[in-house]
# Entry
Amino acid sequence: MSEMMKQYIDEAEQALLHTYNRYQVVLDKGDGVYLYDMDGKKYLDFVSGIAVFALGYNNKEYNDALKAQIDKLIHTSNYYYNVPAIEAAKKLKKVSGLDRVFFTNSGAEAIEGAIKAARKYAYLKDGTTDHEIIAMEHSFHGRTMGALSVTGNPKYREAFEPMIGNIRFANMNDLDSVKACVNEKTCAILFETVQGEGGIYPATKEFMEGVRALCDEKGILLILDEIQCGMGRTGSMFAWQRYGVKPDIMTTAKALGCGVPVGAFLMTEEVAKQSLTSGDHGTTYGGNPLAAAAINKVLDLFEQNNIIENVQIVGAYLEEQLELLAKEFDCIETRRGVGLMQGLVFKAPVADIINKALDKGLILINAGTNIIRFVPSLVISKDNVDEMIGILRTCL
Ligand SMILES: *Cc1c(COP(=O)(O)O)cnc(C)c1O
# Structure
């Protein structure tokens, strides 16, 4: 590492709040599925900014669209209409099959909005306010107080109690545990279609169908968090589309803007017409012309470049290669995941492996202490998978 890079890292440690254990690298630029640090060292990136840069780095069409929008109009208040936001909302409706969109600046804010929408819906239905939400253990929904309140990891919540009230935790893929939490006050059941931070746990088909039926029977809203697993990552535009089960409310973010900070929550017309209304919710930046231009271009490029087809092909290949690795190495317990959202579960902490990989020019990230998570750009090729496996093998 150069003296200059070392110095920048020192300066970072003095200036920034110590909320992250950062890897010892200062990243400088990206191209396709590769990143470069400030010394010019090249890295194969299997993290993509945590499932964000779906289209790869330095995509010319995406960059040009943003530059054009910057020269035209970056921001207007949501009190006025703007064409990029209108176009982005239409496109999101089309790919999701949901009816109404609210743009946010981040995933956590999309969760906040979804919670408010569900509470308002229940309030208008029975006139009371102490409704409950069922969330899952090992879930992750963000760091703001509402999102934290539905995050099933006590470690993240403890110091910040009290959370927002009336949240119950059930277990993912255990329908009985969900049923045990339901009562006449339950207004929503919320989970990630594929749990990300909690260790790459996909919902089973039985669970999805069971929860949907339970929601229909009891008049409860199903909220699916697609912030990490959505936007093509599992081989369909949104992960729930593979199950034939539709949510009432959905959150998205991360790859939605491919690097420009955006998110959204969407809902069916049925929910929208008796939920948030004028004055109930707002944001200064959410869906501003620059952010919306990013969403527009991302959705166009997904279609033009057959991104989802690539995920199906390369995702299946990644899965196969990780399976082989899991069979070959005793230190690996199992593989879990769907498409280009995969996890290798180790018998011991993976921090050393990830640091070794970084040293050898491969960027990986964990999900929990024992799991290496693979959430690369959706434009990766089989050759990139082979290259990754080759480097990872030397680190085991
Ligand atoms: C990242 C993530 C969030 C939070 O998104 P931010 O943009 O970091 O606020 C919420 N839910 C899931 C499933 C996530 O992966």
